[in-house]
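Weekly structure sync - notes
Attendees: PM, LS, DV (DV joined late)
Agenda: review two folding runs queued last week.

Item 1: First target. Sequence and structure tokens pasted below for the record.
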Amino acid sequence: MNLLFDGAFGTYYIAQTNDHEPCECANLNKPDAALNIHRTYIAAGANAIKTNTFATTDNEVIARGFALAKQAAGTSAQVFASIGPKVDSEQYLAVAEQFIKLGATQFLFETQATFEPLLPALQAIHAQVKDATVIVSFAVSRDGFTPSGQAYKPLMTQAAASPYVSAVGLNCVCGPAHMLELVRQLPPLAKPLAAMPNSGYSTVVNGRTVYHNNAQYFAEKLLEIKQAGASILGGCCGTTPEHIKAIAMGASTQPVKIATPADISTPQLNLARKPIAVELDPPMDCDTDFILQAAQQLKLAGVNTITVADSPMAKTRADSFLTAALIKRDTGIDVLPHLTCRDKNFIAIKAALLGAGFYGIDKVLAITGDPVVHAENYRNPGVFNFNSKQLIGYIANLNREVFAGREFAIGGALNVNAPQFSKELARAKDKVAAGASFLYTQPLFSTQSIENFKLAKQELDCKLFAGILPVVSYKNAVFLNNEVAGIDVPQDVVDALQDKAPPQTREISIAFCQQVMREVYDHADGFYFITPMKKVDLICDLIERSFA
């Protein structure tokens, strides 16, 4: 079974129409737009397309969606009935029965969190459709668990062993690099393997969820996934016809080598020391040895504050407040837990702040949080009682009413890489007006981000910390550029890292960070170093070489 599926219907539909209603409604309201999207993917090289029915249980929407897909496909592509996560077995069965009545013979149960609820629908298809093709694809996060908490290896083994299943797969949630790792870790399966990752990891820009336009990179990773055992390929959220076209054209699995600039030396900068904050990620298990040793090492290096991320990139880690409390108790260093709007309602937020006060934590970084793509409620997967400005205002009100006399210093984030920085700057002013006394920026890489930082310092009445992220390798730089929205490592730096041994990579990365620090030093109230991939020694080396 060798199939190349289309990419994301939903995110591509929004990009083409600016219509934020459920894309399935287009089957009835904008059939020409739906038909054109199917045809565009087929023209790009897809030989299998999904019906625009992922989230619906409405028979009329299903019937029209199936008809449009069949019309677009003609004899050029196979049509698979798309069935996304449902409430229970009865809904799965009802949708499957409707597709069977319409004459569907190929089915894709996609973005699933578990297998058992599908069985009645799978049995009905097996009983009523001769030679049916049924693909069951699971949504799995980078830690190997579905949204329902099931480990993916036994789940996929179970599905592959079913006589009602033709192929098993993974789709959504992960970008291509992480899905590649999940595929490589799979045990041998009894059925063909499908892989349809997101284009990367999204971010929210001006209220819209956006993904990288990274078709060439995506295609290279998909071909690596194919080499790892997947015979059915395609894309999920953020993937466009350009992504599918790049796969169909057989993008090279090896990046093109570009001549690198001359070696970069890293002299001692001898900058006068300003306040230094360093971000550490909490552990993904119960082992606290690393983070406590790292915090102590950074304290000895002269770091003033450890900032503790709140499940960055929406990958579950230990609670930021509990981790910060542990660090403060065991090392004595000042801490700054991040608090996102994504995971907690106003009750849980107040509870977390009250608990933080028990440990003498007196500052917090209020941020929106990276969006989550989860099957059960994929259109609005987070809590988001507040946006970041409202969260800052809420904490400021608590300072007056509840925490009077032991108020929290409130920080926020500033995206210096925002395409429309004037709007980002206006939001930053609103955050300051709401109660933020300091802002941490996203990593500074480009000349434009440095200019944006300088402008922000002129315009904002608050302390501004410059974000610095050392890149640890060529592979890391390529990943950041192609799967993490909002980060843009300059191409000359990426090129300089290619084919370099770790010692050379370290020198190039430190030199670039020092260049950025020199550019913004006079405008920065402090520096915010983001620890890459547990490389605490790299951060300590950078600090030692940069400050007198």
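Item 2: Second target, run right after the first with the same settings.
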Amino acid sequence: MKQAESRYEKHYNIFQNIGYYFGYYRRSVPVFLWLCLVEIVFGAVSPLFGIYLPKLAVDLVTSGVTMQRIWLTIGIFGGLLLCVRVAATASERGKYYLYNTRRNELLAKIFLKTLRIPYRHMEEGETKELYWKAIRIVNQGDWCALHKLTYGTISMIQNVLSFFLYSTVLSFLNPFMAALLMLLALAQYAINIRKIKYMERFRDEDAELGKKKSYLFYSAMGNQNAAKDIRIFGMQRWLNKEKDILLDWTKKLAQKKNRAEYLYWQLGSLLNLGRDIFAYGYLLREVLEGTVNPGEFVLYFGAITGFSGFVGSIMNSLANLRGGSLETNYYRSYMELPEEDRKTGQRHISELPQPMSIEFRNVSFSYDKSAKILDHFNLKINAGEKLALVGVNGAGKTTFVKLLTGMYEPDEGSILIGGVDRNEFPREELYRLFSAVFQEPFLLPVTVGENLTFEAQYDSQRAWKALEDADLAERFREKGVTMDTFFYTDMDESGMELSGGETQRFLLARALYKDGPVLVLDEPTAALDPISESEIYDKYARYSENKTAIFISHRLASTRFSDRIVLLGEGGILEEGSHQELMEKKGTYAEMFQVQSRYYAGNKLEKEVF
């Protein structure tokens, strides 16, 4: 089951990806490379000491020296071996600590990269998929690509070095014997390479299966918010059927992989058995003929036994390197995505008059080439004007907001703020202009003060004033809520939840605290009833004095306090004017208003909203 490849994905070979990570270590924490070197050298030498120690003991016993001499010699040699192993272990432990800190830093780099990628690209499915792939290959602990390439490289060098050290030992026995063992090791290498390549055929199917299992078991079955739908609509049987399909797929895939692994394991075992029988037979003959003494027999016996272990370790390292390299391509591809130009100009917003005008001049925008959402769109919002932007879903209201706030760049035309092209301001300056409230509430599991201000150090008195203006301060005090109270229970068991209306008031308080010169409301009350919506909009209108304000909604309750109403549709402006003017015109706006108000004709309070 081959997955479609993203046009953003790049391909680097193993050596390029190893160089990428170790270059990162060299720049960020050079001591890491020295620890790697110590681990490689002492880790490779340690097994050699291990096979020489039994030889030394046998030689001492058979030579007839005193017990005191034996214990002294073995003690010195054993102490040296202990020091070597302690040095290797200590360097490995220190390296692991540094590795973990770098892994967390790479996760942070992914997040920071996301903030620099053009917002329009971040909404694309391919970019989102690449983002999650990049996250997974760093955020899987000791199974992540960083670990595979880092430890796979160290293990590969260490085991290759040990392999050749053991080969050197065997060459003293018989160069022909060493060459034969090397050829058998290469045959085992070929078998393992074939196994690795065969198992890589399952990589895409593993990824697809993992994605579907993750969605079913966590997003569907494990989602508390889905429990009501599952029960009401009787989805248990259907979900169980889907679960059985996935488990059956998992079983069949595991069987195919296990059969292949067993076959290659048998081939490798037969090869190792043949090699060991031949080598041990040769050693026994040499002992009987007197060309090899007992101590040398123990030495060569240990070297031959270690041979297969090093070959297996080399194969495991190679598999980790190949897998880690393929996964690293996702991370590097994401980190190399084009970034938005955040320093398009040098102007400062303090230069602009307040309140300020906004003008869309001949602006066109489309998500693809098939249809334009805005087509040569022109609109002038006067300084301090309260503008209501209305229209059916898909008319371009949210697109207008994203263009206005700098999330999107127009395909054609320009956007002026205070008579100045908005591209003359650096991106950070542009964002400072807007106090915006969007459709989806964004509340983090952090403290009230941090959620309200998005600042580590904030003005507590000013924060409480914003809550008072939003009619939340008294409610919070009654509940014992302080600026240090957490939202939700993710970070604190006593974390609080807000109702829908309280959430909207909190978002109002956040906008008031920022106090940007332009207030933008992108359907923030879509989930509220008309009365609650009207109350919230009254608050926004009251605190938008001396500001340019843009109210966006597909419901028309927000229009009654606006200076002007613009009805969007078919890529441009269908109608504009005051509420009274548009009602007298009896056009599309009047028809929409009458249709909506009809639903509330039986309720006096709700009817007053319209």
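Discussion on item 2: The CA atoms of residues 132 and 329 lie 13 Å apart.
Action: LS to circulate a short write-up before next sync.
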